[in-house]
Write a structure and sequence with these properties.
Layout: H1 12-26, E1 33-36, E2 44-47, E3 50-56, H2 62-79, E4 86-90, H3 95-107, E5 110-114, H4 123-129, H5 133-140, E6 145-148, H6 151-159, E7 167-169, E8 191-195, H7 204-216, E9 222-226, H8 232-241, E10 248-250, E11 265-269, H9 278-285, E12 290-293, H10 298-301, E13 309-311, H11 316-327, H12 330-347, H13 350-366
Parallel strand pairs: 1-3, 4-5, 5-6, 6-7, 8-9, 8-11, 9-10, 11-12, 12-13
Antiparallel strand pairs: 2-3
Helix pairs in contact: 1-13, 2-3, 4-5, 7-11, 9-12
Amino acid sequence: MVLSYFHPFRGGAENQALLLSENLRHKGLDVSVLTRSFNNLPACEVLRTVPVYRAIKTVNVRTLFGVCYFFSSLFFMIAKRKQYDILHCHIVQGFHSAAAIIAGRLLEKKVVLKIANTGVSSDFIHLKRVIGGHYLLRLLKKTDMLVATSQQSAIEARREGFLDQQIAMIPNGVDTRRFKSLDEYASSRTRIVCVGRLVKVKGMDILIEAFGQLKREGLCRRLDIVGGGPERTALSEKAVNLGCDEDIRFHGEVGNVEDFFDTTCIFVQPSLAEGMSNVLLEAMACGLPVIATRTGAAMDIVENGVNGLLVDTDSAGQIRDAVQKIMSDEAFAQALGNNARKTVEDTCSIDRVARKYQELYRELITV
């Protein structure tokens, strides 16, 4: 597994890579992780049974950052060539993906790339913004397999020239033993929970606007926002301007998001763009009623009115109406939550997802 950041950094790609690696090792595969080097972290350690090599070197000089990143990735892949059969790169636009394609051709190794983001924050958009990005994209089209987590990401990949036979549809996985159905039901929902980075693309400002409307109408008592990021000050100011700052709690980054999930809450994902949101799946696995914007994998996983509600991006009014609909009918809220749990069990449990990757790896190395 190859990716730029890894634990103790916490993000969707980092959490997914660790969960998948750990589960694959439990199934008997020899999995390790290659990631960036940081001065305060050990060069090599084992995390939850997974060997981690922090060997990708970088320099904090814009023109040299990518060059150093690329060549240190490539050198490691060549030096360790006897220790792996497949290079699985998380997040397409990383320089490690280009290094993996070249290493794969030189060493006759198979390469798997995984799309992380779609829409306005698409991996392909970010890739084409870097110097030489269009050349890198042509190089990445030589991958043996491209993993898409949603129909939207598969469509974007085809638009960029990837072939149907190169694209595998595999969702993100959820630890359904850790994220499990809540034991008791509430008589009513009183608060909203949202988890994510405090950056513009996550749409937190839209959610705060919707909460302000709900608060003025006496329909919702509290909004819990879990996560940190550069928009924290701007979001706090927006809450003050809307007169609802005393009822919004910013909790920063936490280790266990499930601590914020209980039967008094509704989970809302207001993102302007997403890949496949881990935390949306985790909330669904806990049996929460969820509201998500029509972007990324949410459109594949959420069946509107059955296991959650879908709203348009950048629409505080639609979020407000969806929250009101759930809060006014607890039986409906419970039905959404029960169906959400079943959806995750049937399609996204980490055991099921890891088996799909096992099958993919086996097909690649037997070709």
